[in-house]
Amino acid sequence: MVGIIADSTCDLSQELTEKYQVAILPLHILLGEDEYEDGRDIRPEEIYRWSDEHGTTPKTSAPSMESAVELLQEVSGKYEEIVCFSISGQMSTSGNVMQLAAEEAGIGERVTVIDSENLSTGIGLLVVEAAVMAQAGHSAKEIADRMEELKPLVRASFVVDTLVYLHRGGRCSGLAAMLGGTLRLHPQIVVEDGKMHSNKKYRGSLEKVLAAYARDLEPVMRKAKRDRVFITHSGCTPEIVDAIRDYLKHLEIFDEILETRAGGVISSHCGPGTLGILFIENGGV
User: Fold this and answer.
1) Residue ranges with strand state E in the chain
2) Among the listed residues 115, 259, 140, the one whose alpha carbon sits nearest the alpha carbon of residue 191
3) Which residues, 6 or more positions from 68, have their beta carbon under 8 angstroms from its beta carbon?
4) Among 130, 170, 217, 238, whose CB has the most other CB atoms within 10 angstroms?
5) CA gyration radius, the chain
6) Tens-digit pLDDT profile for residues 180-218
């Protein structure tokens, strides 16, 4: 059997990690001199409060070697092989830590580390697919080969409510952030080839913007794998999330519509009010 590990940026809920038997390796969040483990001892709301009080974005870092070795040893006692998923290698060294930890633990030959080339539930989509394959008895190599087919088909995008947090993190100029707030601009952030870039900008209230964003995705969603779609957000109101869910239900494309909250690392950089619709395009494979 194959065990599945993912770093905490996959943004899967506890319910999903338990259902698919996925072990989570937390990244670290630094609020000044204080260090926390993502998803374990700090909530996004605390991060927002600290960021607003200090006018800066918290620093985030890869998992510790000690934590990675400990988790790999624990999982290796239950499974013959292990497949690990990390956030894009262009965003963090999380995957490198996993690989080094496997060697340190003396189980390098039993561990396969996959650079998701993605973030948030863009990773989560791959993790769930891998877990389903693992439960069906597939080998680590079969799972890794399938993930390489699926990685370029993951459609991960988000609409950001405020440019303030992107500005604090150095991903948006001060002028752009100021104009964005004045003009009520909401950029769409797309993940491609392991990098984030702004695809387009919407204008208006968040409710109207997210409705337009969902409509814009419909042509691609109609070519999606039907298994599941994620609505992942960093603290949107229930009314906004319900409206997106109702729209997706109306399309009758997906067998399962899953809602998750973005964890601390993702929330640190995008700020509150961010929402994404994430799925895998069919691609004929």
Assistant:
1) 2-7, 22-25, 28-31, 34-37, 59-61, 81-86, 111-115, 154-159, 185-192, 195-203, 229-233, 257-261, 275-280
2) 115
3) 25, 97, 98, 100, 101
4) 130
5) 19
6) 443 468 888 899 999 888 778 898 899 999 999 999 999
Q: What span, in angstroms and rounded, lies between the C-alpha atoms of 246 and 241?
A: 9
Question: What gap in Å lies between CA 184 and CA 100, rounded to an integer?
Answer: 45
Return d(Cα 216, Cα 184) in angstroms, integer. Answer: 19
Q: How far apart are CA 113 and CA 86, in angstroms?
A: 8
Q: CB-based contacts of 182: which residues, under 8 Å, 6+ apart?
A: none
d(CA 154, CA 124): 10
Contact 111, 98 (CB under 8 A): yes
Helices in 105-253 by DSSP H: which ranges? 121-135, 140-150, 164-168, 174-183, 206-221, 238-251
pTM, 2 dp: 0.92
As a whole number, the mean pLDDT across the chain is 90
CB 3 within 8 A of CB 16: no
Per-residue pLDDT tens digits for 69-89: 999 999 999 999 999 999 999
